[in-house]
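Hi support team,

I submitted a single chain yesterday and got back a structure, but I'm not sure I'm reading the token output correctly. Could someone confirm the output below corresponds to the sequence I sent? I've pasted both exactly as they appear in my results page.

Thanks,
R.
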Amino acid sequence: MNKEQLSLKLYEKMEVEQNAFKEELLTLTPEQILLKAHEYIMREDILALMEDPDILSVERCKALLKSSTPLADVYDQYLRMDCGYMDTHRLSGMCRRPHPASETAGTGPMTFRR
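Hi R., thanks for writing in. Yes, this is the structure output for that exact sequence:
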């Protein structure tokens, strides 16, 4: 199997896993769903990244394909990272400057610097 085929197979396996996770969420109370909302969104983000066949090496794809829950494995690894989601938000706030239209008016939308 080449890299693109491995990536597709892994994506499809993760998609099935995410659909099962979603179905499980839908059986919970609203309060229980809220407790798992972050996990659901992060897993969706991971799945979106997996649409890129170049995101993982062949070795990493093969290793994850051996797992019965590759998406949960990646999510668990994400939770153990030193840099969290809030760090990304903080950094994005530091890289902002006023939109040109707001420089004259004093208010307005913010845009990212390029």
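A quick pointer for reading it: The longest strand covers residues 96-98. Let us know if anything else looks off.

Best,
Support desk
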